[in-house]
């Protein structure tokens, strides 16, 4: 099987918002922070609003993969996202190159990310990812149709898990409602 380095499969953007170096504007900019990204491709909470002029390369788009730079335990594959949302500090945006399926890439990275951050953070108090460690991750290069199929199966498994969790929540609400009647 042929492998390629992650740096050959994606564009990697390490996001760093430094108020001292940013210009101010009238309109508000919406930033997502590490706390907005939770497991299973979920985005929670409200974005932070500032008057900083955003770096357009930090804009988040569908099919981007977001990784927390500090204590990464999973990746977030972006399906739908509002326009004009930007990645804040300590987030990494990966955008797949042509010929690489983003869901497949997210599946591979989701499986490896914890181990990579542990091995790259020897002696560090908090696990983190550096650009060199991220760039050298080896990705199995399968034919595009196989990538697409595997990525879709991974994605649908996560969606099924989310639906089962929601069903369980609703059953709990129903039970509680029936008890009060």
Count of individual beta strands: 11
By oligomeric state, this entry counts as single chain
Overall geometry: globular
Percent helix range: 25-40%
Q: Report the sheet with the most strands, covering strand number, pairing sense and barrel closure.
A: 4 strands, antiparallel
Strand order of the largest sheet: 2-10-7-8
What Rg, in angstroms, do the CA atoms define?
18 Å
H/I helix tally: 4
Terminal-residue CA separation: 61 Å
Structural class: alpha+beta
What's the mean pLDDT score?
A: 91
* Percent of residues in β-strands: 25-35%
Low-confidence stretches: none
Helix/strand order:
EHEEEEEEEEEHHEH
Characterization of the model:
- The chain has 181 residues and is of the alpha+beta class.
- The protein is built from 4 helices and 11 strands; from the N terminus they run βαβββββββββααβα.
- A 4-stranded antiparallel β-sheet has the order 2-10-7-8.
- The model has no long low-confidence stretch (mean pLDDT 91).
Which helices and strands, and how do they pair?
Blueprint: E1 3-5, H1 6-9, E2 10-15, E3 24-32, E4 37-38, E5 42-43, E6 48-52, E7 65-68, E8 75-77, E9 85-87, E10 91-96, H2 102-120, H3 131-135, E11 138-140, H4 144-180
Parallel strand pairs: 3-9
Antiparallel strand pairs: 1-11, 2-10, 3-6, 4-5, 7-8, 7-10
